[in-house]
Amino acid sequence: MRFPEVIRAPGVLLVGKHCFSELAENFHLGNTECLKHALSKGLGFGIVLGGAIVKLPQIYKIVSSGSVEGLNLLSVILESLSMIIFVSYNHRGQFPFSTYGESFFLTIQNFIILLLLFVYRGQPARATLGSAVFLTMLYALNDPSWVGPAALATFQAATIPISLMSRVPQILTNFRNGHTGQLAAFTVLNSFLGCVVRVFTTLHEVNDSLILLGFVLASLLNGVLAFQMVYYWNAKSGDRKSYGFDQLHKKSK
C-alpha cells in the first residue's frame, strides 16, 4: 500500500523512508527498531509542542494575580542559564530538533518569567540588564569564534549541577513556606513528565551521556517538585503552621 504524497511526505520526514514503509505501508509491526524509532520521534515532537505552551499557565498566573509570591528568583536564573547552554550545545551539535526543541521554547518562556519577577519586584532596571545579558550569552554560545567546541562541551557538563541547583532553591522555598505560592500545577507536572520522556528519547536518538545524565537527575528533582505540588495542593500562604518546617518541628517533639 502506498499513501498519497501529501500524507507520505510528513510521515517520511518524521520517521524516515525505511520505517515509514515498514510500519505504515507494509504493516511490518514486528520491526521493533522502527517501532521504537517512531515512538521516540512521536514523543519527541509531542514534548516540543508541549514545551511551546508548558509555562504559559505560569506566566498567566503571575500576570493575572499581579504577584510572584513563592517563586524563587535564583531558581529561574539558574534554569534559564542551563537552558541557554543546553539549546546552544544541541544546536551546534546538529542533534535532531525533536530531541531538544522544547528547551528552545522553554528558554523564551523562562526569560519572560524572569522579566516578570523583576518587574513585579519593582526592579525594572534589572529587567533591562537581564535582557542584555540573556541576548549576549545566546549570541556568544552560538558563535564558535566566541565559544569554541571544547568550551561549549565544558559549559554543557556544568549545566548538570546548574540545572539541579535551579530546582533546590524552589524546593526549599516551598518547604519553608508550606505552600507553592504562584507555581502553576500544569507547568510543574508537565516539566516532570517531559523530563521522564526525554530520558527515553535521549537513549534512542542522542549518543551523549552528558545529556542523558542531565535528564535523569532533572527527572528526580522535578519529581520532588511535583510531589510538593500535590502535597501542598490545598495550602495557602497563611497555612505555614500546618506544613513545612513547623510541622517537621512538631513531629520531632
Keywords:
253 residues, mainly alpha, 2 domains, PQ-loop_rpt, transport, membrane
What is this entry, summarized?
The protein is mainly alpha-helical.
Provide an overview of this structure.
The chain has 253 residues and is mainly alpha-helical. It starts with a helix and ends with a helix. It has helices spanning 5-15, 17-25, 32-51, 56-65, 73-92, 101-120, 124-141, 149-177, 185-205, 209-231, 244-252. It is 75% helix and 0% strand. It folds into 2 domains: 5-30, no CATH class; 36-244, no CATH class. It contains 11 helices and no strands.
Number of domains: 2
Residue runs with pLDDT of under 50 for 5 or more positions: 240-253
Number of E-state strands: 0
Question: What does the radius of gyration come to?
Answer: 21 Å
The percent range for helix content is over 70%
Give the biggest sheet: none
Number of contiguous helices = 11
SSE string, helices as H and strands as E: HHHHHHHHHHH
The average pLDDT is 83
- In whole angstroms, the N-to-C terminal distance is 72 Å
Portion of residues in beta strands equals: under 5%
Anisotropy-based shape: globular
> What is the structural class?
mainly alpha
Keywords: Membrane, Repeat, Transmembrane, Transmembrane helix, Transport
Membrane topology: Multi-pass membrane protein
Transmembrane segments: 71-91, 103-120, 180-200, 212-233
InterPro entries: MannP-dilichol_defect-1, PQ-loop_rpt
